[in-house]
Amino acid sequence: MNIRYLGLELARQLRNARAIVFVFAVPIVMLLIFGSVYGAQFDKAAHLQWLVVTTIQMGGYGAMMAALSQAFTIVNERSVGWNRQLRITPLSGSGYMVTKVAGALAVGLASIIVVILVSVIFLHAHLSLGGWVLAALGLWIGIIPFGLIAILIGQFAKPSFAQPLFMVTFLGLAILGGLWVPLDILPGWVSNVAQVVPSYWLNKLGQMGAGGPGTVGTPALVLGAWTIVLAALITWRYRRDSARA
Amino acid sequence: MDTQPAIRLSGLTKKFGTLTAVNDVDLTIQPGEVVALLGPNGAGKSTTIDLLLGLARPTDGAASLFGEDPRRAIVTGRVGAMLQGGALLPTTTVRESVALIHALHTHPLSIDEAMERAGVTDIAKQKVASLSGGQMQRARFAVAVVSNPDLLILDEPTAAMDVSARHSFWESMREFTALGKTVVFATHYLDEADTFADRIVIMDAGRIIADGTPSEVKSVVSGRTLSFTLPSMSSANGPRSGTANVEGLQHLIAVTHVERKGARLSLTTEDSDATLRALLSDYPDAADIEIVSRNMDDAFMALTGSEGTEFEGASK
Questions:
Q1: Distance of residue A88 Cα from the nearest chain B Cα, in angstroms
Q2: Cα(A99)–Cα(A88) distance, rounded to whole angstroms?
Q3: Closest CA in chain B for residue A4
Q4: What is the pLDDT of residues A62-82, one digit of tens each?
């Protein structure tokens, strides 16, 4: 793995402006709508201002979308044969994975920061600077599994199949994780399923960073397990995948 | 500079279900050789290339590059390749593509030198998506040489190139081989193999069926081809008596093979002078006569058995 390649890759991915606008715009619009409706109410379950909870939700949503949308980039790269070109370089399976996750993290972080800034500047959400930083950090770490899910979709899906697969994964994770609507208004079983879904813990990590209740033990365990399993699948697949497109 | 062969394939076999794409191939290529890999579509050339680069796992047998595992040779930057279905990213420029691969290697050429060698300096800032077929292949060549490899593997490098692009591509390749590098290229253009390679390996149905210098390979088909039209056969008589006439041609002196394409007949002959005299005395109306040496196409067709003949040769 080397830094110069990583830098060139990140610069290349951040130039992909169309995807980035999409990633940024949706959570901001949703934040402005929900945020101004519920404003200063207090969320008793999260022990946080409603606006802060919504900001974290939307920050997580945008970051997750940013990470998952890597799948499209990867499907396109594979379909033109770029991965075959990479296979005849010293880049290893894990090096490839790290580069792609770093790409997801870079775009995801930008999305998190923009959502928080909009919330603070336009909606006057109230939280200490340290609280925001930790909330952002929690969300940021939490999107690692989504970067990996994106790589996996990218590695397996044919170009025509990537879009539906992305939508199903994305909507499923957004709803089950409580990123769109609070889980307590959904049927009970959804809350149970949510416990093993990475998007649920992404949201929780963000809330904990902001000072909400809970310990990092469980999310670390669940997200760690996702990361290990996905990473193993990806490196295995990268070595096998020499398909002539 | 190396005691180990650049490529060694031993008993290399690859099966896809019931299809055996590569069947027990043994091949050793020494450093400095320029080898053409020929064969009809589906002969197993591309699969062999995938196997020798370690991109696919052999069902049986082994491949080594410079005495090492192929992956090891790739990691140390000793191998560059232009593969089928391996292309550059449409949204990057030529220079960015070379720079990305450059960044991954440990002892690469400079980006500018790689582009210079491939002749893409003038299109460095162009987006890959806007390149012509020939420019695209040259850009891919720049990517293949940026690691400063000792061995280059090229799978149909001049496909999609027009004549002048092919010419300038082989010019840059000559500069590369002049440095004592090893080159293996698969091609459909037999004249490229003939003029450029020191050695030609022909594959068919997953096996190597010929291996030698271009002149050795061509010597499989000796003699010359004598072709002409015969007005008496095509107009006056029906197809049946035409067949009888063709059989008569087979008995002309020194003829080994007769072929008919429309109104034109071709005789393969061991002694074109004697055949011509006999032809003119038996068929005085023979017209538009041409005599040419048999070439790589004929050798290729003879070896792979993919000839479109209507009549088998008399003394084959």
A1: 6
A2: 17
A3: B103
A4: 899 888 888 888 888 888 889
User: Could you give phi then psi for residue A153, rounded to 5 degrees?
Assistant: -60, -45
- Listing DSSP states for A147-171 in one string gives HHHHHHHHHH--HHHHHHHHHHHHH
pLDDT computed for residue A20 by the predictor: 67
Closest CA to A67 of A224, A225, A199, A175: A199
- Give per-residue pLDDT as tens, B78-118: 999 998 877 899 889 999 999 999 999 999 999 999 999 99
For residue A39, the model assigns a pLDDT of 62
What is the per-residue DSSP string for A176-205? HTTSSS-GGGS-HHHHHHHTT-HHHHHHHH
Closest Cα partner for B269 from B221, B308, B225, B299?
Answer: B225
Tokens (6 digits) for B264: 């034109």
**Across the interface, which of B90, B99, B105 has its CB nearest the CB of A89?**
B105
Coil, helix or strand at residue B225: strand
A88 with B56: Cβ contact below 8 A: no
Nearest residue in B to A244, CA atom: B85
User: Are the C-beta atoms of A80 and A74 separated by less than 8 Å?
Assistant: no
Q: How many CA atoms lie within 13 A of A61 on its CB side?
A: 26
Place of tokens 């582009």: B115
Contact B109, A96 (CB under 8 A): no
Q: Percent of chain A beyond pLDDT 70?
A: 93
Taking an 8 Å cut-off on Cβ atoms, the answer to whether B55 and A242 are in contact is yes
Residue type, B92: T
Give the other-Cβ count within 10 Å of B215's Cβ: 10
Q: Report how far apart, in Å, the C-alpha atoms of A82 and of each of B83, B87, B273, B309 are.
A: 10, 5, 57, 42
DSSP B125: T
- Residue B266 pairs in a beta bridge with B227, B259
Sheet holding B255-261, edge to edge: B255-261, B264-269, B224-229, B287-293
Does the beta-carbon distance from B56 to A245 stay under 8 Å? no
Q: Are strands B199-204 and A42-43 parallel, antiparallel or unpaired?
A: unpaired
Taking a C-beta distance cutoff of 8 angstroms, is the pair A157, A165 a contact? Answer: yes
Note the Cα B316 to chain centre separation in Å.
26
Complete DSSP assignment for A78-112: HHHTHHHHHHTSS--HHHHHHHHHHHHHHHHHHHH
Cα(B17)–Cα(B140) distance, integer angstroms: 32
CA angle B246, B249, B252 (to 5 degrees): 165
